[in-house]
Protein 1
Amino acid sequence: MLSSTSQAHHDESVEPEASPQFINRDPESTYDVFRKDHASTLFSLVGASQPRDPHEVVVTEQSVELLRIYQSGIGKWMDVLDHSLSYQRQVVRRSLSSSLLLHSVCALAAKQMSLASERFLWEPVSARYYGESLRLLIQDLNRPETSHEIVLAATILLCSYELLAAPGLDYERHLYGARTLIQARGIGAEVTDLEQASFWVYARQDVAMAVMNECPTLIPTHEWPAPLGHGFEEDTLGCQILWLLARVLELRFGSMDNLQDIRAQGLRNVSNEIDQWWDQLPSTARGVCTGDFSEDGLLKVWFYVPSAAAALLYYHMSKILILEDLSGTRSIAEVNTRDSPSRRCDESACLNELRSEARSIASICFSRSLQDSVLPVAVNPLFYAARHIPSLHLKARIWTLLDEIETRIGFHTKSRVVQLQGELEIDSNARH
């Protein structure tokens, strides 16, 4: 078990209140389902590995098409740090014998299609599958023989649907159901491969939302399991750096205002661990450089597996978050270092390092070989890269790439672009 002495901010937060009208209406989200009394049985969900689904599984031509779309599209996002491809293989296979899983997969695939393709065609389809998934989730939570791994995987899929449908709006509600199941079950060594895979999909979403909202993860890092894998497999390395990034978020954005020295020491410690992670990283996992440079001076790099690119993006963003804190420069518009008692590095040296890490992110993201499955991971690193790259031309290229990500794959980026442009305007006004 990985450990951390830090406490997540959310441990002390009050859970969102349930809607008083819920009893008189159908659930509208996974949050509604898990706040309802039906969820009281989830602590006993240990389940059989292959339970019999009491609902008849009806596979139609439409559901087969959505399964195919899922496997070739958003399923790859889910498995970007999983070489066993659990969500493309296991989840799809198990969905053929689980109505809950089948409807959840179809709901997510149709939602992604509605955002990236033909909205009027796919939006009603996604809503229909989503509504039926919530109904089936309630039923399965109340069956003693329910498989925990099936319910957890379905909840992860439905949380992903909700994050696509309404990004940034009360993200705790979107992740509430999955967090509840994970913490009730305890994702340690004695769980199935699918449960482990589900946790790491959840962890990536938890970290992404924490970065966007500048807060610790909902599940504190001392509750995270050790990343499982063999040797220096890139997916395992990616999970390791994801955990280290989550620790940086706890220290940087956690409630330790009166413990600045402890906080600063904690950041130095985790920074050393991140450097050790990098030092032990196989050279091939750092990307294969061609020796050529783009017109913006970016290094041309190729990654032979998507998980290596994703891991490197988490690494460079972790370094930026630490350097920002040590230099007292949290954004392009915040250059006053007097408010940072933890400042421990020369301002000029930190600025150069920040720009170097930012350019490394840009080099990865503008690589022609970068696969779509990495793009959702790239959104937050691109945001931080744009903050610290001085070239206006390269900033504009990053904004354009973020816009293209939303247009091409349906992953929300507009709010990040607006924030970046607002920060640049503030900085420009301050200079004049």
Protein 2
Amino acid sequence: MAEREPGLDPLAEDARLISLDERLARAKTDEAIRTGEAQDGSEASYRLGNRVLAELIGGMVGGALVGWVLDRFLGTSPWLLLGLLFLGIAAAFRNIIRISSGRSK
């Protein structure tokens, strides 16, 4: 009896609809690549590595430079250089730990 009732017959997928879906998916992928939304995590890891390296080098160079300049003016060579170098290293490691734990400034 159910076979004789009028209703909608299930239609097979039209090849045009399948082709349209494929083209839409390709267009969405191309647009995501073009706008930069399809990037994987490697870019973020690269930026994080560069930030850690900059913190480490910046802390050491900054501390040593300030210590050297103060040593020249005050005549306390090499004590301020060494002291501020170690202080710069400690600050750099503190910043690296802060970066790696996910907290920002």
Protein 3
Amino acid sequence: MASPQTFTLLCGLLAATLAGATLSPAAVLSLSPEVIEEKLTQKLKDHDAVDILRRLPLLRTMQTKPARGILGSVVDFILKYIIWLKVTSAYVLQLQIQPSADSQELVVKVPLDMVAGFNTPLVKSIVEMHMETDTQAIIQVQTSERGPSLVLSNCSNSQAGLRISLLRRFSFLVNSLADKVMSVLVPTLPTLVRSQLCPVIKAAFEDMREDLLRLVRVPLYLGSDHLEFDLLSPAIKDNAIQLNLWAKSLDAQGEVTKWFNESAVPLTMPTPDGEPFSLTVRQDVVKAAIATLDPPEALMVLLDYVLPELARRLKSSIKVISEQAADQLAPTQIVRIMTLETPELLLDQGMAKVAQLIVLEIFATSEVHRPFFTLGIEASSEAQFYTKGDRLMLNLNKISANRIHLMNSGIGLFNPELLKDITAEILASALLPNENGKLRSGIPVPMVKALGFEAVSCSLTNDALVVTPAYS
């Protein structure tokens, strides 16, 4: 028995090992700037950002804002000759999202294009000015008592990015008045845009963030069971938002059957390849999904009726071991195939295999209760992942009986390797079609269409499955 000192030492080594380990999330959803731009643009539309710009109170701000010195004299002069002053048209141009200098934040630039006009008794036409400016904000990860979260901060609009010009020239007097209006707008407009538009941008971002959280929480249905994801922590990597996720598996009654939190199980993130989004799912989560679709079961096959050629060849193989046993095989002979455990998914260099432990029994007739023999088989199949629309599909091919063991025998001891070939053929003809039938429904990935895509493609790393958009 180990001494208390030895036990304490082992616990200390284990704690040190775990503390130094880099834990990986169950899955990672990576969103490119293009996706963020599109989602944020739509949210700005939903919040009527353009209408907010059109209703900027330019004249009222000039009337109520106290001004001193030369600027105050200019404002007083303008107010004598202007009947109204307002934005006549406004546009939010293509958003730009770029990484900050240290790649720990994302810089959001919202370009604005506006035309403002004012009416003056000095001329019958409306005097119009073209105004271009950029509102800028920062997307960053902030930590609070609730944990890390994505926030939008430092929303600003500066004079440096403001450009104002007359759309057409008038008389000297009117042009002089327009110049004075523009000189007042240079300090006034950025402050006004910041006060009126920044809250809208922040609200749009909050809505977008909630939409993304709802997106990752949509269940992935696996028959009557399903997988659910939720946010573990956000991160900003290079120019993308990365949502690290945990997962749980639930049965048909909604009871949690397994949790997938951070783990020492590795998760290799794919190299960024300009994809709008990528969903990288850890190997053990994929394995659990396969196990849910293809649980252990027992399969009974009347071999002579279903696969008569295989029944004939099985009889010939058994005859090599025992002629008496082979002669007892009747047309009602039964092969019973039992999968003992859930399939084990193995990933290596972009290839996938599924390993299984299988028990195979041969009964001479449907009436007997004791099999001729029982074989334990360590089998493996090629696993082919592919996609159909927004569904992730899996097909098992070319099952191999890697190792075969004689568990018990009623016809005497024999070398089970003598039945290796016929056993593999029976599994390929009876078990594989049954398993592929259960896997045929696939796994829907609802976030694909929610992100605006119709189909997905998939690839494998050494320890994960990666889902990305497919293009026709």
Protein 4
Amino acid sequence: MSEPTASPELPLTGGCNCGAVRFEVRAPFESAGYCHCTRCQRRTGAAASPAGVADSDAVVVISGAEHVRSWEPADGWPKSFCVLCGSHLFAGHPGEGDGVGVRLGAIDGDPGIRPQWHQFVASAPVWEPLPDDGLPRFDGRRPD
């Protein structure tokens, strides 16, 4: 299993593609992984979505909150994005609930953690084989 790298200096910073939304992650990520669910595939246009999980109070939108919109499926975490450029930012809402999944690609620089698992592998697309990386795999949602 991949281990986190040395802790980066906090807070971590990140944002959307157009720069309208900026956020900070003020505590180290608790875990990170790849989601292969169909929603993540359609939302990102990729085979999987890598995200770091942080305490919801540790994720703070510091500018551009008015540009963040969320799609809230009935049976999953809210999916938040920048309404101006479409960049995917979070699963969950910063400051609400138990945790927030922060898209690792939205972080500036090294997030200080590496993906540690694959979830929803039963939904992984046939056109992109799962890598032989030794990480645990879960057919559905990873157990907490």
